[in-house]
Amino acid sequence: MWMLLPALSLAIVHIAGDNAGVVPDAAARAGAGICLTVVLAYLVFGAGLTGLAAWIGARAGVELAVVVRRLFGASGKRLFGAITLGISIPASALTGGYFAALLVRDLTGLPLTAATPLCLAFFALMAAGYLPELLIFANYCSLLLVPAVILLFVLSGGYAPLLNPLPMTEIDWPLAMALLGYNAGGMRPALAAETAACLARRGGRAVWLTVAAKLLEGVLTVAMVYIVIAAGVAGPMSLTAAAACVFGPAGGRIFAGVLLCTFVTTMVPAMVVNGRHLACCTGIATRSAVAAAAFVVYLATFLSYGAMLTIMAWMAGATSLFIGYTAYKVHKNGVNQQ
Predict the structure, then answer these.
(1) Residue extents of the structural domains in the chain
(2) From the CA atom positions of the chain, what is the Rg in Å?
(3) Global pTM value
(4) What is the tens place of the pLDDT at every residue in 263-313?
(5) How far apart are CA 6 and CA 213, in angstroms?
(6) DSSP string spanning 84-144?
(7) 11-326: CATH topology
């Protein structure tokens, strides 16, 4: 039982634009054919890569960046930083610059061209240590997302296809790789390794905690797919459209606010990671790097939706190779807890 609440908290931190934006919108377009792609990306490949990163942290007892520096030196750490940014920058552009901005537009009426830089500016400020009260408020509100999704799943009839399973014969491999990069790349390996390192005294159970969080995230994402299919809504942000259909306009706005708070809890650590790795690659001060990273993320929002997913798909392969080779070196060299 000690794993339940930490796993739930980790799953909430992991929920981002892929879970609540990319996947539901893909389900609205492709229907049931997306289900097997999601299962593979989250419950198989994503859980495996996350478990591998967590094993590195539990075995070494230190952060992943420290492990990389010990094994491969400063050049290896810069390479790891570049691979991380290759996923984290487009992922931040989608989560913070597109999906979060869409929610702000729907809630406030601001045009998307104004909502995008506004969201990224707030995320950068909170990542730099400003507005801590707003971040605390968002953290508490994000805890409502899981029960809200469960309630939406029940009321929308999303469980009905489970009685007569929808066909899951088509696998969209480019999307699967992009989702793998989105949900298990970028800041996620470092987060998994750091969590396992902090809980290293519990041995293998620390690894199972991070895997359980990833599996819970995957189950919630599959539930979002069934919600959108049952509601028969279209994107963008088809999940909030489904919530408005089930809960009514007012309930839909509340759900959108909770989802926006969840994106805040994801984007703030993402901007911190972006800043740290940009500082590692360029040598500039961390706080200045956070501002620079926010500007780079803003520039990335001008890329097409498909281009960002393609970048993440390629970088997912690089991340998998790097994490796999790092795990092999840790096992071979016997890097122990310090």
Answers:
(1) 11-326
(2) 19
(3) 0.89
(4) 999 899 889 989 988 988 888 887 889 999 999 999 999 999 889 999 999
(5) 8
(6) HHHHHHHHHHHIIIIIHHHHHHHHH---HHHHHHHHHHHHHHHHTT--HHHHHHHHHHHTT
(7) Amino acid/polyamine transporter I (1.20.1740)
